[in-house]
């Protein structure tokens, strides 16, 4: 008898979950982010053929590119498009602008192109100038106007939301302590959650356990971050919930934060997650082994039937988009920024990955051993990369020396680094000097691809190159 009741309850739960999800665009098919900040990328046509080959169920783009939306017509790929941050304030203030956006970017393609999500802005709450803060308060009004416009066309199938990064959190540890930042909690998060709850939309979260781990790679457990069985589990002291991986911890912290504002049932979508396949010398853990391990274990976790969910929300599907399709060589910042791809734009797959989640680990070719899971300790210099043209180098040299504070004093006539007098030699010195001076203020050793880090001291004669010690 008891057994019978249990079965019935199980059935009811299943039935209600089915009801809750049946009209939403929810599936446990893995999606992929298609970023296009590269000058060596395949054409949209070729890219979409690749996306079909890797069997991505969803595709997310960072705009509403007409060529891509046309090419996706008639495919079974669910599509997520984006209102750019620059468009938010106009749309927030004027319904006609929202109507025009929908008229121009949705109606020509929908429903032949299976647009499922419209994301308004990208990580809007992560920007923090006076002007950016104005955008925070325009965010929910813009979302509502886009929704209203869709409703005017009787389009119910497209959910509207906005992807946010983990920096919306004031605290995220232990997960039960999760709380949104006080500067956005009342004014942005509450109205956002109210909208998402009312319209059965999703909380879109960009969540990177890699970034959390990399803040302190010596103390943080890499196995826990990579979903490996060897990991030590963690028990939240307040709830007693047991965590086997960092991603669940981060997701649950957001679930607890929503709950504190009174929203217990808003569903999550992971709009971005992933792991860099390479990076700079001062960026441990960015390698093919970890990237493949993270993404394979992620896909398996998110596609398994019945769904696992998280400790705070067991059994719930979390639609997931991996970042990213391609390595993007025109992104600035540290080396990892240019190495989130599953594919190298010119050479193909960087590692094997089955987005369906069925392939057993033993079926994959062996991965190269990770070489940089422990932080490098020592000096690093920043020098000219191989194969760089002298014309480009001149401008970079001028820029570096223009930053003042004696960056290029040693290059003056009669100073110790004046000889040899060549753009190449002077740029080598200027890059190292600039980076050593300004790294703590956020400068990177990149110079649009002209510079690379090295552990080999480029000093010569009496010319000592400034270095960074890590
Ligand atoms: C709203 O936008 C439309 C279309 O650009 C424009 O014609 C109209 O004047 C705007 N209304 C307001 C109140 O700014
Ligand atoms: C969320 O939506 C549900 C279902 O529509 C509703 O019953 C509930 O009151 C809403 N929660 C809040 C906090 O508004
Ligand atoms: C010199 O360095 C200081 C501190 O890093 C910085 O605030 C200042 O802007 C620099 N000067 C110039 C001309 O860049």
From TrEMBL:
It is found in: Cell membrane. It catalyses: Hydrolysis of (1->3)-beta-D-glucosidic linkages in (1->3)-beta-D-glucans. Gene3D superfamilies: 1.20.58.1040, Glycosidases. One of its GO terms (molecular function) is glucan endo-1,3-beta-D-glucosidase activity. It comes from the Eukaryota. GO terms for cellular component: plasma membrane; plasmodesma; side of membrane. Its EC number is 3.2.1.39. It is an enzyme of class 3 (hydrolase). The keyword Transmembrane helix does not apply. Residues 1-24 form the signal peptide. Residues 380-465 form the X8 domain. Keywords: Cell membrane, Disulfide bond, Glycoprotein, Glycosidase, GPI-anchor, Hydrolase, Lipoprotein, Membrane, Signal. PROSITE patterns: GLYCOSYL_HYDROL_F17 (PS00587). InterPro entries: GH, Glyco_hydro_17, Glyco_hydro_17_plant, X8. It is a lipid-anchor; GPI-anchor. One of its GO terms (biological process) is carbohydrate metabolic process. Belongs to the glycosyl hydrolase 17 family. This is glucan endo-1,3-beta-D-glucosidase.
